[in-house]
Amino acid sequence: MKTKLFLTALLLISPAFAADAPADAAKPANTSVCLRHSDVDGWGARDKKSMIVNDRFGKKFLVSLSGLCDDINFAFGAGFRPLGGGPNFGTCVDRGDRLVMRGGGVTPHNDTCWVTKVQAYTKDMEAADKLARENKQPLAAY
């Protein structure tokens, strides 16, 4: 009797697991991107509304921005402040964080802008940006 109950339960449960299997298999293994505040190790402007940030492990990230970011090409220094202004050690740069720029030609009203998106800057993105610049075309929006 116990064997019949076990087999019946197994048959009822197994289709539910089988239905979930293809959806899980279709998901990428690692969809989260984390640029830690404490790991930022260099940056460069991509355009007026985005920048490429390197971490200390050699990874590149595309950080999309909004707000008054016109002076990003002229800043001597830049850093990220987390939303809410709390401690940032070990936390990821995320939507709503502020990019604070200082020095160079940065004017007082253009010293901050906000992060709207952080994503990995892939070799394909880098190649597409290089090709667009060579052909004097606008950069793709990612």
Question: Key terms for this structure?
Answer:
142 residues, six-stranded antiparallel sheet, 26% helix, globular
Give me the secondary-structure topology.
Blueprint: H1 2-26, E1 40-47, E2 50-55, E3 60-67, E4 77-81, E5 98-102, E6 112-120, H2 123-134
Antiparallel strand pairs: 1-2, 2-3, 3-6, 4-5, 5-6
The unreliable regions are 1-30
> Can you name the CATH architecture of the domain at 37-134?
Beta Barrel
Radius of gyration: 22 Å
Strand order of the largest sheet: 1-2-3-6-5-4
Give the CA-CA distance, first to last residue: 59 Å
Mean pLDDT, nearest integer? 75
Shape: globular
Level-1 CATH class name of the domain at 37-134:
Mainly Beta
CATH topology of the domain at 37-134: OB fold (Dihydrolipoamide Acetyltransferase, E2P)
What is the overall number of helices?
A: 2
Q: What is the succession of H and E elements?
A: HEEEEEEH
How would a crystallographer describe the biggest sheet? 6 strands, antiparallel
